[in-house]
Amino acid sequence: MFQVCTSKMLNVPVLLVLLGVCYGMRDQSIAVRGKLVCGAKPASNVRVKLWEEDTGPDPDDLLDSGYTDANGEFRLSGGTAELTPIDPILKVYHGCDDGFKVIFVLQRFLLNFFLQLVTHSNTSVSYARNYLYMQRRSFGHISSRSKQGD
């Protein structure tokens, strides 16, 4: 009888922890819109991917991917359910100067300038627009031409 009571009592804390984790998961989403430029020309057909970076055993989540259009413009958005604030990164796969594919990664501190609004829902509601110059001499330079909601 004592073993049965102890076994049931141990299940209660486990159940409470699981309920807390389930309740703590919240939908978060992000949207990014931008224009990639190589020299003075738009960087068209460049692969871009929006990831949510995770630590530990949880793998990174691909939120959205696509290609720039003929004007070098792209728009990505996506969301995921996480316990902690999401850590979005933008990966740009390009060969601007020499034809070799290079992966350029915008971490959150640059991404905050380049995009964004992280919302606590499954719908992204706002875009910011900036230009990212891809040539080697100013690789990763982001212009200050920004228009909220454009």
From TrEMBL:
Highest taxon in the source lineage: Eukaryota
InterPro entries xrefs: Transthyretin-like (IPR001534), Transthyretin-like_sf (IPR038479)
This protein's UniProt keywords: Secreted, Signal
GO cellular component, one term: extracellular region
Entry's localization field: Secreted
Signal peptide: 1-24
Residue ranges that the Swiss-Prot or TrEMBL entry lists as coiled coil: none
Entries under PANTHER family matching the protein: TRANSTHYRETIN-LIKE FAMILY PROTEIN, TRANSTHYRETIN-LIKE FAMILY PROTEIN-RELATED
Family: Belongs to the nematode transthyretin-like family.
The protein's name in its UniProt record: Transthyretin-like family protein
Organism: Ancylostoma ceylanicum
